[in-house]
Amino acid sequence: MWRPDNSHIDDGFLPTDRVILHADCNSYFASVESIDHPEYKQVPMAVCGDPASRHGIILAKNELAKAYHIETAETIYSARKKCPELLLVPAHHEKYKAVSQRINAIYESYTDLVERFSIDESFLDVTGSRHLFGSGQQIADELRRRVREEIGVTISVGVSFNRTFAKMGSDYKKPDATTVISRANYQTLLWPLPIEALLFVGKSGAGLMRAHGILTIGDLAQADPQALPFLGKTGLHLRSTARGEDLSPVLPSRYEEQPKSISHNVTFDHDLVDSAEVMAGVTLIADQVGTRLRRKKLYASVVQIQVKDTSLKVMNRQRKLDSFTASTRLIRDTAAALLRENWPAGKPIRMLSVGVSDLSVDGAQQLSMFGDAAATEKAQRLDDAVDTIRSKYGSDAVRFGRGLTQRDT
């Protein structure tokens, strides 16, 4: 293995700084498919859940497809309108899992502090590895070379003194790039960026801050904390993040314990037709999902529904949120909106499922779940109160959708 000249390490980090890497595989599913099919690299290509269905969802796309502004989670029908010649490839999840294990084995040859954050993303704490392998940038460049040559996938790596900036570094330049964000340059690199570029800031939160004159990450970092009441508690956390004060550690056990999705489905004893009963059913199921999320201390950014009619025909839909959440209310409202938009009013429902995916262990939720911080905090207090009552008096102490009869499946 390559060994650096470690006689002097000067990588722009203070002696007391941690050195955190965030390694992100570029167009992961599409890149793995191209290992066995190099010809896929020559055409616009996307991996999707159901190539035969125009309502299937795009899961990943290669660089040529990105040029057509094709987005993850949009429908095949929409993607094909943008790029009629788009090549669609079915997903092979076991293959992606196996390749991910090989990539992480390379990471683990440099440090035992590797947190598999998702199937294609990992955090590495290489603070104690620099005297063996060189600076954070040298390690990042070596990881990029080895993964590219040994696996056939490219990665982008962010190097910084905390997790948030490392993640923003891997996003700063793609594909196959290393970006170092140190104490010496983070204000120059990050503070001029628009506020929505800050991790955990969604569209609605960015709009709220822009309305109060906070246009860039630097504006938020330098804002008077007393001038941020409109953001609630989340605002202080985001300000701290913008100032480089994220102290969260790299925890190797996180990904192994984290499920990929959480869902709950109910087959009702009678078909739901009335809109009030349908809403009660959505509320009942969303409550189960939200409760399980909070118990596992997880947050989700995708809400999914599955509906089965009396002829057992199934419809699936999903929506990407601009916020990570564990809120029963937001899950319920999103699921209800998906139903209203895709299921004819009055059409009987035999089975209903609500699920969430794209799970995260980071508790910093994007602003704002409901368009204003006060509503967000009120919803959080309600969830906390319900969870507290159930922990003391049992899960039946508070029930939603009580009038419905069901067979949990």
CATH class of the largest domain: Alpha Beta
Taken from the alpha-carbon principal axes, the silhouette is globular
How many helix segments? 15
Largest sheet: 5 strands, mixed
Unreliable sequence segments: 1-10, 364-371
Number of strands: 13
Number of domains: 4
CATH homologous superfamily name of the largest domain? Answer: DNA polymerase, Y-family, little finger domain
- Would you identify the CATH architecture of the largest domain? 2-Layer Sandwich
Distance between the termini: 52 Å
Strand order of the largest sheet: 5-6-1-7-8
Computed structural class:
alpha+beta
Mean pLDDT: 85
Fraction of residues in helix: 25-40%
Rg, alpha carbons: 23 Å
Order of helices and strands: EHEEHHEHEEHHEHEHHHHHEHEEHEHE
What percentage of the residues does DSSP assign to strands (E)?
Answer: 15-25%
CATH-defined fold name of the largest domain: Dna Ligase, domain 1
Could you characterize the architecture of this molecule?
The structure is a single chain. This protein has 15 helices and 13 strands. By secondary structure, it is an alpha+beta fold. The protein folds into 4 domains: about 20-25 and about 95-185, Alpha-Beta Plaits; about 35-90, 3-Layer(aba) Sandwich (MutS, DNA mismatch repair protein, domain I); about 190-240, 5' to 3' exonuclease, C-terminal subdomain (DNA polymerase, domain 1, Orthogonal Bundle); about 255-409, Dna Ligase, domain 1 (2-Layer Sandwich). The strands form 3 sheets. Strands 5-6-1-7-8 form a 5-stranded mixed sheet. The N and C termini lie far apart (about 50 Å). Mean pLDDT is about 85; it is low at about 1-10 and about 365-370.
